[in-house]
Amino acid sequence: MAFNIPFTCALSLFYATTSFASSSFLPSDLYCWFWQTAAVANDWLYIDSGEIHSKSGGTVNMNFTLSIDLSTSWTTSDVAPIVTLHQNGNNMLTRVASMFYDPISNMVYWYGGYPYMTGFQPSVWGFTTNNGKVTWGKIYDIGISQPTSGSTFPGFTFTTGSLWTSTPTAYYGLGGYLIGGADPAITGLGMTAVSGLVEYNFQEGLWTNSSDTGASGYREQGFSVHGAAVYVPIYGEDGIIVFLGGDIPTVQAYVGGSALVQFSDITIYDISSGKYYQQTATGSSIPMGRIQLCAAGAAAADNSSFEIFIYGGSSDGNYDPSSLTIAQATDFSEVYILSLPAFTWIKAGDGTAMPRSQHTCRTIGNRQMISIGGNVKGNSTFPDPWANGLGIFDMTALTWGSNYDAKAAPYVPSKPVAAYYNTSSRFPSSWASQDLKAIFKDTGATSVNTTITNPGAPAGKKTNTGAIVGGIVGGLALIAVAGFVLFFWLRLRSKREKAMLDKLSATQQALPHGSYQTYHDNSCSELDTQEPKYQLGTETTRLAEMGGEHGLANQRLKEPVELDAHR
What we know:
The chain is an alpha+beta fold and 567 residues long. It has helices at 5-17, 326-333, 415-423, 434-439, 465-502; strands at residues 30-34, 37-41, 44-48, 51-54, 58-61, 64-69, 74-75, 82-85, 94-95, 98-102, 107-111, 114-115, 124-128, 137-140, 163-166, 170-174, 177-178, 192-193, 197-201, 206-210, 228-232, 240-244, 265-270, 275-280, 294-299, 306-311, 335-340, 344-347, 360-364, 368-372, 390-394, 399-401, 403-404, 510-511. The longest helix is centred in the C-terminal third of the chain and has 38 residues, at 465-502.
């Protein structure tokens, strides 16, 4: 098994010099770990990228993937992930990458991020899910060009800080910024905000970038950085994407925190029409503006509402708690709920979590949100009070804890959410447009349920025999049609999966649950223990919109060197 020497050295020193508690998969003297990305697929949680800070191990960039089984219950202190080392050198060493699941090809993809090294080779990597086993392989290289180039951007743009999410059919990433380490065309420049919505269509295997701005597009300049995006499947023909928080810079020279979006200002992207809408949100407790927050969502069983949960963040990207006001420190430690279709904000009220930034959140199981990592102090040397830097939030009970329950009851809107709808209108007092109103007009329910109902027929009702017979006949016809469609869909899927698998690299070994392996190399040198800088850069020049040919596919790569962590 071949390893990139710089990474082998780092990993060897990390595991050889770092002590591990028997109940922890991270160092027992962990300070924090942050800038990760994560994806949930087939009862597994995959975590990748970012960096780990500990007293004994110093700073180590994550060049491995963690796979956590969601089919069984665990606690944050005894969870034992599969650890899979990367075999692609430094080419996945980034901060805040996108990692998403494509159910059509049954693959998890990795894309984007802020590189740790120069000479970085921007690519899209992927693996086919297989009970937590991970075999990364290069799926798309820099300079994507396909026959249908009219709708595919030829210069592969490798962004970080975009507002991204995925649906069952596509990945979407709004805005973000470029840096020289990932794009040879802007080497030496600072963070350069870019506009546009990048989409990867799972069925067609097609990357596109729409850069519309103005009345039908996203904002006037089209820029958006370090906010959150949540896919909401129950509204619109194909679902909607809710963009919230972050920065909306008016120029490409990005400075973190300079143009914070207020949480009363919500952007909705209707997937079917491709249109953006700005809707005002109200509530007695509206969160303060922030970047680098995390978000997750859940729908009521009867689709009567959809709740988006946000937690943490920072005001400027430096995340120095000493610079926070008392109001900010309190606000960033709270979980806030945006309930749709009312567009109202509700404070969860637990208040036991510490404010943190540069973390990530995902919905896991039936009703829990996991917060992964995060920086709880700006100097990266403050021990995270959570075991392994993980927190579990019950979205119904609205409480933080350390137990993941694989058999938890289904999600039910919390009591504060139900209380709101019991006394208030289901919809905003005014809509941004009639088109937006039409998207939210009917979800099949008139009130929010706070209990799980029996989907069967109510007792005592008379049975209509004719209706049953007619239903059976009609059902058989539908089954026949469905079988016909399924046959051809499976043929198409199998062909696409084979094409994807042909692109994968040689397999790599996955370490078993709860085990760690140390790789020694006599050529290893000591790790650079200099504390990285986390402030955001400001130097830049004007670039064209995202989608131009910035990347140089055939350029000889320079030897990788360490990049400063200016963000």
